[in-house]
UniProtKB/TrEMBL annotation:
Gene Ontology BP, a term: phosphatidylinositol dephosphorylation
The protein's name in its UniProt record: Inositol polyphosphate-related phosphatase domain-containing protein
Gene source species: Acacia crassicarpa (northern wattle)
Gene3D superfamilies xrefs: Endonuclease/exonuclease/phosphatase (3.60.10.10)
Bias-annotated ranges (Polar residues): 40-50
Entry keywords, A to Z: Hydrolase
Species classification: Eukaryota, Viridiplantae, Streptophyta, Embryophyta, Tracheophyta
Single GO molecular function: inositol-polyphosphate 5-phosphatase activity
Length: 401
């Protein structure tokens, strides 16, 4: 036992300084977030004038996709998932899981950011309706997708001619989250901050865990949580997922700001959305689950859905809400196929995984209305991407004359 503890201690010392570890300092912020924080916190200093306020609504697109470690092809059409043909949101929050394979090199080694750069390039192309940046030698993107640190206001017709700007992009091993805002809203976003929590291998590595991003739009605070929780279909695995969620809620923390009045915990924000591969399964025998999926009997299946049970019982997600699910389970498919894994291959019984709604989007608190909740049909990975569109109430303060 002492030998095991010594070996574990050596491993921990070796990886504590690694980007993939997020078990101690929960105030880790991206450089762009630190730059914007110093600029944006100054905006609240001029508060001596008489103020009036009114409310507005903004449309927010939230999407989550476990891409199974697959590098996106340069011609991947993102418009279907982002629904840019039919809807145009004010803010896009996109979370990915397994953006790189969850092998030892990626979990223990230096951060591999090539995949996230490629995804951001495709997102930029879809939102700004242009061709993705051309590739150069060594399969690298010609130019890193620029993140705007909000040092100066930007107008709708900025010099780059972009409709949407990326205000932050954060990666933790296989998880990645990126936030894009309409360029005319850019100057009204303040107090951007990022907090990551690793709760995977040894309870601290980033193969499982979360990335949380918070910001204020005008006078309303937003927090978005992208997570990848523990996998597996046993009762022990379900409890581990609950433990992951509890750790994320307790360990995620943001700075209070110069005025010491900014929310520091996830659920203290005005508008909160949690997205990701939450990995909750269906509590039925595999054969029964497959039969009900084939008959499209979603109501019966959802009565036995682990996350629905948690939302109802309030053990971990007390007060959280989820929209009606009217789409098939998002996992597990054969890649580039419409068939669930193992359904037609009894000889692979040891590898079979029953279909489940692993990929979810839930929200907390008032002031938000969900207008759409469905999935996209991209066959890139063994998961189908999910998306939700919210209308959020935003408080706007102006000077009275």
């Amino acid at each position: 036992m002492e030998g095991f503890k010594l070996k574990k201690s050596k491993i921990l010392r070796r990886i504590l300084s690694n980007d993939n570890f997020d078990g101690g300092d929960h105030h880790q912020h991206s450089p762009e977030a630190e730059l914007e924080s110093s600029r944006l916190n100054r905006a609240s200093a001029d508060s001596n004038r008489s103020l009036s306020h009114h409310h507005d609504t903004k449309k927010i697109f939230v999407g989550s996709w476990n891409v199974g470690g697959i590098v996106p092809p340069k011609d991947l059409d993102m418009k279907d998932w982002l629904d840019t043909q039919n809807n145009s949101a004010d803010i896009y929050v996109l979370g990915f899981q397994e953006i790189v394979p969850l092998n030892a090199a990626n979990v223990l080694g230096p951060q591999n950011r090539k995949a996230s750069m490629k995804w951001n390039s495709l997102i930029a192309a879809a939102l700004n309706k242009r061709m993705p940046r051309k590739r150069v030698q060594d399969n690298k993107i010609a130019e890193h997708q620029k993140i705007y640190p909000m040092k100066e206001p930007v107008c709708a017709e900025d010099e780059h001619g972009q409709d949407f700007l990326c205000i932050t992009s954060k990666q933790l091993v296989g998880m990645s989250m990126t936030v894009w805002v309409r360029s005319d809203l850019y100057q009204h976003i303040r107090h951007l901050s990022v907090s990551s929590v690793g709760c995977g291998i040894m309870g601290c590595m980033g193969n499982k865990g979360s990335i949380s991003i918070r910001f204020c739009l005008h006078e309303t605070s937003f927090c978005f949580v992208c997570s990848h929780l523990a996998s597996g279909g046993t009762e022990v695995d379900r409890r581990q997922r609950n433990a992951n969620a509890t750790d994320i809620l307790s360990q995620t923390s943001f700075p209070a700001g110069l005025q010491q009045n900014l929310p520091q915990k996830i659920i203290d924000h005005d508008r909160v959305v949690w997205l990701g591969d939450l990995n909750y399964k269906i509590c039925l025998p595999d054969s029964a689950t497959r039969s009900l999926v084939k008959k499209r009997e979603w109501t019966t299946l959802l009565k036995n859905d682990q996350l629905k049970m948690e939302l109802t019982e309030g053990n971990v997600f007390k007060g959280w809400q989820e929209g009606a699910i009217e789409f098939p389970p998002t996992y597990k498919y054969h890649p580039n196929s419409e068939h669930y894994f193992g359904c037609d291959q009894p000889q692979m019984s040891k590898k079979r995984r029953a279909p489940a709604w692993c990929d979810r989007i839930i929200w907390f608190g008032q002031g938000m209305k969900q207008n759409k909740y469905d999935r996209s049909e991209s066959r890139l990975s063994d998961h189908r991407p999910v998306r939700a569109i919210f209308t959020a109430d935003v408080k706007i303060v102006g000077t009275s004359r």
